């Protein structure tokens, strides 16, 4: 539909594709079904966590604190292995971009 929502193409591999108005933003390929499912659920969990953070925002606190915690909670319900993988992704992000809270007491 090219409306920015992800879709899956199947050929000699599984392709996880996000495109909008003729422009492809993301294309990932794998032959591992578990990997494909991780990508799909990773994006879904991220969306749910962002919505949760917006509804429960804490002024002065880096929004990723609440968002990352919600992502971990949800991913842990799906798979402990995927939760561990996600935790590693969070750590990698924080090495490059540490939390930035406005209130030093947090």
Task: Summarize, please.
Helix content is 53%, strand content 22%.
What does this structure look like?
With 106 residues, the chain is an alpha+beta fold. The protein has helices at 33-55, 63-78, 80-96; strands at 3-10, 14-20, 23-30. It has a 3-stranded antiparallel beta sheet with strand order 1-2-3, with helices on one face. The longest helix is centred in the middle third of the chain and has 23 residues, at 33-55.
Task: Describe the secondary-structure layout.
Blueprint: E1 3-10, E2 14-20, E3 23-30, H1 33-55, H2 63-78, H3 80-96
Helix pairs in contact: 1-2, 2-3
Briefly note the structural class of the backbone. Answer: alpha+beta
Number of distinct helices: 3
Terminal Cα separation, in Å? 44 Å
**What kind of sheet is the major sheet?**
3 strands, antiparallel
Q: Strands of the biggest beta sheet: in what spatial order?
A: 1-2-3
Would you list the SSEs in sequence order as H and E? EEEHHH
Radius of gyration: 16 Å
Helix content: 40-55%
Our estimate of the beta-strand percent is 15-25%
Mean pLDDT: 94
Number of strands: 3
Instruction: Identify the overall geometry.
Output: globular
Low-confidence stretches: none
């Amino acid at each position: 539909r090219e409306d920015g929502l992800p879709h899956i193409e199947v050929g000699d591999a599984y392709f996880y594709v996000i495109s909008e108005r003729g422009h492809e933003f993301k294309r990932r390929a794998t032959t591992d079904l578990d990997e494909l499912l991780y990508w799909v659920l990773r994006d879904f969990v991220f969306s749910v966590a962002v919505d949760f953070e917006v509804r429960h925002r804490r002024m002065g606190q880096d929004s990723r604190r609440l968002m990352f915690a919600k992502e971990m909670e949800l991913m842990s319900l799906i798979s402990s292995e995927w939760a561990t993988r996600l935790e590693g992704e969070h750590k990698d992000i924080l090495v490059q971009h540490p939390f930035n809270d406005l209130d030093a007491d947090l």
